[in-house]
Design a protein that fits this description.
The chain is of the alpha+beta class. It has one domain. The protein has four helices and five strands; from the N terminus they run αααββαβββ. A five-stranded antiparallel β-sheet has the order 4-3-2-1-5, covered by helices on one side. The relative contact order is 0.15.
Length: about 200
C-alpha cells in the first residue's frame, strides 16, 4: 500500500522588514548635519560671486551708455561740472534703460537703489566717476569704479596703486575702462595718460 502525501500550496512569505538601529539613525543624522554645514558655509561665497558678476554687468551697461553719449558729443564723456556722480551719469540717461539700477551695486548694502531717475542722488550711487575724459583717450583708463576708494578732487594719479578702503567685493573692486571692458582689480591701476583727470566719488 502506497501512501500519498498531498502538499497544499502555501502563499510566498514576504521578506521580514528590518528596522534601523539607533546607531544607524544617528550616523545618518550626523552625515546630513555635516552636509548642511558645508552648504551653509559655501552659500555666502557663492552669493558674493553672483553679486560681483551682477555689479560688473551693471557697470558694463553704464559703459555702453557713456560711450553712446560720447559718440554724439565730440567724443567727450558726460561732464556736468559738479562733484555729484549722479549729475554726470544722468546726462547719459537717454542711452540706457533704468539708469538708477545700473548705478547701484547689489553688494552695496549701505545704499539703496533709487526708485526712479528723478529721485536719484549720490546716496543711491555705488560708483566713482572720472571727469574730463574723452573716448579717444587710452582704452585702459578707468572711467568708473566701485566706490570705497579716493575722495572728491583726487586725480587718477593720486588713486594709482591704492586699494579699496571699504571694498564692496572681497579682495578688490570693479573698474569700467574707457574701452567698455570691466575688470576686477585688487588696487587702482596706474594711469597710462590723463593722470590729472579729477575724480568724483559718491
Amino acid at each position: 500500500m502506497s501512501l500519498r502525501f498531498s502538499h497544499s500550496p502555501q502563499a510566498p512569505t514576504a521578506p521580514s522588514a528590518r528596522a534601523f538601529t539607533t546607531l544607524e539613525i544617528m550616523v545618518a543624522m550626523a552625515i546630513l548635519a555635516t552636509l548642511s554645514l558645508l552648504l551653509l558655509a559655501a552659500a555666502p561665497r557663492g552669493l558674493e560671486k553672483v553679486r560681483t558678476a551682477a555689479c560688473a554687468n551693471r557697470l558694463r551697461e553704464l559703459g555702453i551708455a557713456l560711450v553712446l553719449y560720447s559718440s554724439e558729443h565730440t567724443g567727450n564723456f558726460p561732464d556736468a561740472g559738479t562733484t555729484e556722480v549722479s549729475d554726470h551719469v544722468k546726462l547719459a540717461s537717454n542711452y540706457v534703460q533704468k539708469l538708477e539700477v545700473m548705478v547701484h551695486c547689489p553688494s552695496d548694502f549701505s545704499r539703496s537703489q533709487a526708485a526712479d531717475l528723478a529721485t536719484m542722488t549720490d546716496a543711491n550711487v555705488s560708483y566713482g566717476y572720472v571727469t574730463h575724459l574723452n573716448n579717444r583717450d587710452s582704452m585702459l583708463l578707468p572711467i568708473a569704479f566701485d566706490r570705497g576708494i579716493g575722495v572728491d578732487g583726487d586725480t587718477l594719479s593720486a588713486l594709482s596703486g591704492q586699494g579699496w578702503t571699504f571694498p564692496l567685493h572681497h579682495g578688490g573692486g570693479n573698474l569700467l575702462l574707457n574701452g567698455g571692458e570691466v575688470r576686477f582689480a585688487a588696487s587702482f591701476p596706474n594711469p597710462v595718460e590723463a593722470e590729472n583727470s579729477p575724480v568724483v566719488v559718491p
